[in-house]
Design goal:
This protein is α/β, with parallel strands linked by helices. It folds into two domains: 243 residues, Aldehyde Dehydrogenase, Chain A, domain 1; 182 residues, Aldehyde Dehydrogenase, Chain A, domain 2. It is built from 15 helices and 22 strands. It has a seven-stranded mixed sheet with strand order 14-17-18-13-12-19-20, sandwiched between helices. The chain has a six-stranded mixed sheet with strand order 9-8-7-10-11-21, sandwiched between helices. Strand 10, helix 8 and strand 11 form a beta-alpha-beta unit. Helix 1 packs across helix 7, helix 3 packs antiparallel against helix 6 and helix 4 packs parallel to helix 5. The longest helix has 24 residues. The protein is globular. It holds the Pfam family Aldedh. This is Aldehyde dehydrogenase family protein. Keywords: Oxidoreductase. Belongs to the aldehyde dehydrogenase family.
Length: 476
């Protein structure tokens, strides 16, 4: 049985859940305890008690801990990747890549510990010197989703610790295994008791306790739009600092002059890999009318040929969806899209394989319009709506006509259109001739409009959320 890590100890509970493999429902990945509200309170108390000393720890102490964590993750990336693939359904190569990225993130922030700087400025008043520095916030609550169960926790936990904060970490209830494995590595990194705490469990219990407790100074959350907005409202009443990453309905624009092979590869990877369960997925493919028919037909042909199967099978290109509710949501949106007038060119069906699992064939909805529910709401599955645009200006207008603004892309050989798109698309991230999903670990991640709230994640921009600026005056 896998326990929670609270105040430097593994703590059990009578509330235990079985973690099932979505590729094979007969495979129990493990049994994981769920924390009670009282245990969350104990974790918060431990973090608050540990924070004064940890906030004043030396850069060397923090570097050593984060570097050790990153090194072990990288050394065990194959093992961690297999665990991730079993519990979440991501194909093994993708899962190993995600584990490696988590290790790289910890390594990056180990370096950032040594690069933290400040400013010394002369005052406008005689005889005064001004110093501007950054200090940790205190206790940070971290709530992560199920679709990237190692990478997203890493890019929140690593900077929180690097800048001298203490952590109370709640992973998604659906995927506790990867989070527990990460916590087990962190538990042996030399961090003082209470600096890092793992509290697995339901959001209604664990997440609610974290939001309500005044000793948590800030919360960083990645998840659904509805949950994130509720969290923001509750946190605002308590004046907690909040960072939200909530989702997207990301456009990929394909112009008449695009290289067809590049555009098809970009569309398929962006829309369907990781089973489309990425907030940066290309769920709206906006194609200029001159190539719409030929592009859409070839897209459907290649999509239908994608191999759906067990995430651990080396021949599999698309793994299962995460659980029954996600499968039902995918099926429902395919049905809704057809009722609204879109044509289902391929996929959109539950299929059976050698083992019982949540297998779903990637779907292409052609003749879609931007006002359809299937084109406006985040499906979070391998379902792509293909929308026709009159010309570049129309395509840009369609791309921006959404409440979201996380990622975006364009396939074109025109430097003019690529440059214009990069400036005028209303999204936090822009890709030219590369998939909308996939960003480096050392650069900022985040969007605008309904996709994000608060400072960016990842890279050196993470300090904007995980630190507070102090201005000090000294008279000579």
């Amino acid at each position: 049985m896998h326990k929670n890590w609270i105040a430097g100890e593994w703590v059990g509970s009578s509330n235990v859940q079985k973690n099932l493999n979505p590729s094979n429902l007969n495979d129990v990945v493990g049994e994981y305890v769920r924390a009670s509200a009282e245990q969350v309170e104990t974790a918060i108390e431990a973090a608050q008690h540990a924070w004064p000393a940890w906030s004043l720890s030396t850069p060397q102490q923090r570097f050593d801990a984060l570097d050790a964590i990153g090194s072990e993750i990288l050394a065990r990336k194959n093992e961690l990747g297999e665990l991730l693939a079993r519990e979440e359904g991501k194909t093994l190569p993708e899962a190993i890549g995600e584990a490696a990225r988590a290790g790289q993130i910890f390594k990056f922030f180990a370096g950032e510990v040594l690069r933290t700087g400040g400013e010394s400025l002369p005052s406008v008043r005689p005889g005064l010197q001004v110093e501007i520095s950054r200090e940790p916030l205190g206790v940070v609550g971290i709530i992560t989703p199920w679709n990237f169960p190692v990478a997203i926790p890493a890019w929140k936990i690593a900077p929180a610790l690097a800048y001298g904060n203490c952590v109370v970490f709640k992973p998604a209830d659906l995927v506790p295994g990867s989070a527990w494995a990460l916590a087990e590595i962190i538990s042996r990194s030399g961090l003082p008791a209470g600096v890092f705490n793992l509290v697995m469990g339901r959001g209604s219990v664990v997440g609610a306790a974290m939001v309500e407790d005044p000793r948590i100074n800030a919360i960083t959350f990645t998840g659904s739009v509805g949950t994130g907005r509720n969290l923001l409202n509750q946190a605002a009443e308590r004046q907690k600092k909040v960072q939200l990453e909530l989702g997207g309905k990301n456009p990929l624009v394909v112009l008449n002059d695009a290289d067809m092979e590049t555009a098809l590869d970009v569309a398929i990877q962006g829309a369907f890999y990781s089973t489309g369960q990425r907030c940066t997925a290309s769920s709206r493919i906006i194609v200029e009318q001159g190539i719409y028919d030929s592009f859409t037909q070839e897209l459907a042909k290649r999509t239908a040929a994608l191999r759906v199967g067990d995430a651990l099978n080396p021949d599999t290109q698309i793994g299962p969806v995460a659980d029954e509710s996600q499968l039902e949501q995918d099926l429902d949106y395919v049905r809704v899209g057809q009722e609204e007038g879109a044509a289902l060119l391929c996929g959109g069906e539950r299929v059976e394989r050698d083992t019982p699992g949540y297998y779903f064939t990637p779907a292409v909805l052609a003749n879609a319009t931007n006002d359809m529910r299937s084109s406006r709401e985040e499906i979070f599955g391998p379902v792509a709506s293909v929308i026709k645009a009159d010309d570049y200006d129309h395509a840009l207008a369609l791309a921006n006509d959404t409440e979201f603004g996380l990622s975006s892309g364009i396939c074109t050989t025109s430097l003019k259109h690529a440059s214009h798109f990069k400036r005028h698309i209303q999204a936090g991230m822009v890709m030219v001739n590369v998939p909308t999903a996939g960003v480096d670990y050392h650069v900022p991640f985040g969007g605008r409009k309904g996709s994000s709230y608060g400072p960016r994640e990842q890279g050196r921009y993470a300090q904007e959320f995980f630190t507070i600026v102090k201005t000090a005056y000294t008279k000579a």
